[in-house]
Every structure is written in C-alpha cells, then in structure tokens.
Amino acid sequence: MSNTNGFTAPGMNEESATRTVKALSQRLTALLDLQLTLKHIHWNVVGPNFIGVHEMLDPQVDAVREMTDTIAERIATLGGVPKGTPKAIVDSRSWDDYEIGRALVNDHLVALDKVYTGVNGDHRDAIEVLGELDPVSEDMITGQLAALEQFQWFVRAHIESASGELKN
C-alpha cells in the first residue's frame, strides 16, 4: 500500500517516496509525543531547581513543535498525508505512555533522559534509512537530531554527578 497520493517530489520514484514517508511518519509520531511529554513535565515538575527546569522545557517544546511542522510539511511535499491526531499518535507509537505525574525534578529528568535516548536513537536509525532514499529528508532529520541531542545534554547536566555518572 502506498503512503503517497500518487505524486511525489520530482526525481523521486514512488517506492522511495513511500518508504521515506513511512520513516518520516514514525519520526512525526515520536516528536508529537515528545512535545506533549515535555509540556506535561513542565506542568508537573516540583522541588529544588523547579524554576530552572520549568523554564528550560518551554524552548524545547517550541523547538520540537517546529520540528513536527517541518516533518509534516515534508511528508505532504512527498505526496503523503501527515497524521497528527491523538488517535494516530497512540495507534502508531511503539512505546509506553509517560507515567510520571506530579514529581520531583530528579524523577522527571531521569525519565526524560530515557525518553530522549529513545527518540534520538530512533532518529539515528531513520537517518540511516533516509540516507538510501532521500538526502533532503536525511539532512532534515540530521539537523533535528543535533538539537535533540543538545536538549538531552541539558537534561543530563541536571542529573549528572561531578564524576560524569548519570542518576537513574
């Protein structure tokens, strides 16, 4: 079954477009989920360093929201249909929902580090797939990964010891 509407970017064949749309759709789901998770943490983090973490998260939410828009528009450019409804997110994700509610900074950041590890690892996998299919999409996801890895570094700076060990 094709993931495109029968047209794609000039110079790209239908099979490559379909495979690219599939890879991008998975990244779209992950980033929509991440965006919502970041905002959830923003609303529910408490305790020491609350304000620093609270204020650190909003720029991440905004950046991830921009990433989702970029991916969705690329999917549409390739003839695909970007799906961003809550049902589409839940139906297409392969991970469990973020389970922490109101909790201390450390608890949320340890969990968020794991979320970023999953998202960033899957972005790397997508880069490998897209490298064979579409250099434009590959470049787009590579640029996003650079920002996402920096966000994970920000998170880890809060949960890292002076010797470089991460709390878990």
Automatic annotation (TrEMBL):
A molecular-function term among this protein's GO annotations: oxidoreductase activity, acting on metal ions
PROSITE patterns: DPS_1
Superkingdom of origin organism: Bacteria
Domain called Ferritin/DPS: residue spans: 22-160
InterPro entries registered for this protein in UniProt: DPS_DNA-bd, DPS_DNA-bd_CS, Ferritin-like, Ferritin-like_SF, Ferritin_DPS_dom
Family (UniProt): Belongs to the Dps family.
Protein name: DNA starvation/stationary phase protection protein Dps
Organism: Salinimonas iocasae
